[in-house]
């Protein structure tokens, strides 16, 4: 049951202070808050999966002419989440740019270090992604989208990877950042060793990988490890774990890391019988 | 043998007029010219494949401190292509923004309608992509990058798809737009019927496809057809040709079209023995 919408006529109204200049806020990630934009992401934020992952909406801000179109989505939020509506002029004055298509929500993150608890609640048979040095928001968003499409159980990001809760990463993920469990913050080697200790076969994806991704055998638990675009996975990781490659034409720049993650996940999910 | 670099001190120098305000020029595509930015793309522009496809450099503009780093790339251009160098201040005043990393080239397109001649020179065994309504420059660039990685022989784009020679599409493709032969401009149905008449098995990629992409049989000539993100391929195309899907979890937004093209191309290239 959604809250009754409240009209806002002053861009400086303190009730919508959290939406001011969200392009800058995007760069800060402070306060444990994040911005969800667009109807697809708002819908995910209102679903049980987001709640299980510890995400909660603080408030919703809509362009007045979008209100009727998102009524069914608003119904999935408790009535303790305020819904504000504003004219185009007020909306633009608040948000500071016009890329949001008139649908914004302010969300709150759960405490950051959930690595231990997330590992504890992974199912007996698991497929997870591990990212090392993934610094591009577009790529991280795309990787989460692929993780959701192929049923990965979680994403683990090392301390040098960017926060997937940046506005643009959430948008590119079509909300999957909120529905696929993740944690972030360990050193890469520590993260992978913990996964190995939990029974995961660790497979580093690299153009120099030892076997084709189509030769990765189905096992109980698999972690697919992705490195940063360009540099790829560091030598100490490639030499510590098994490695796989995506067969491609020689002499070219390797595939984009998001596309590579999609191909490898597709192949592993097929082998594990997760899609078909 | 590269031309001797010429120093430019005036942003209004007519010799570099083609580089003025390239962000706006990006939106116009007029004059049969295009902008190549960055060392990776410049390297591709200097290779024989780009020349075979009808692309030629008109001139090169470098930030002065980048000159020595690209000497080996410059050597691949004939000395009839002028090389200009400028200070940061002049460079920024010319290009109008600072995203180009100090390496720009102005290229010239071949005449646009090469559909007939491109079809004529495809090899007996061929794998091609056909795009219908691909309007996002990032996606089109990524699709060309995938086409190159998996050895596709050509890309055909319908009249409603965007020009892959937009600056951003070339950059995202890491230059593959210049090395993978393409043509653009026919109505989708006409384009696909011509490919069918040339002996291509036409496979439309769709979340509602009849078979899994892993079940596409290797044949002499295959055309993989991609639709626009969101809407997908129109009904008249899905009902006229064979269709394949990428198995994935139900109830989600389908994969990004560029990622989907990578997965399908990977699977088809494996089946056709093009990579391994």
UniProtKB/TrEMBL annotation, chains A, B:
Signal peptide: none annotated. Residues 128-266 form the tRNA/rRNA methyltransferase SpoU type domain. GO terms for biological process: methylation; RNA processing. GO terms for molecular function: RNA binding; RNA methyltransferase activity. Transmembrane segments: none annotated. Pfam families: SpoU_methylase. Keywords: Methyltransferase, Transferase. This is RNA methyltransferase. It comes from Shinella sumterensis.
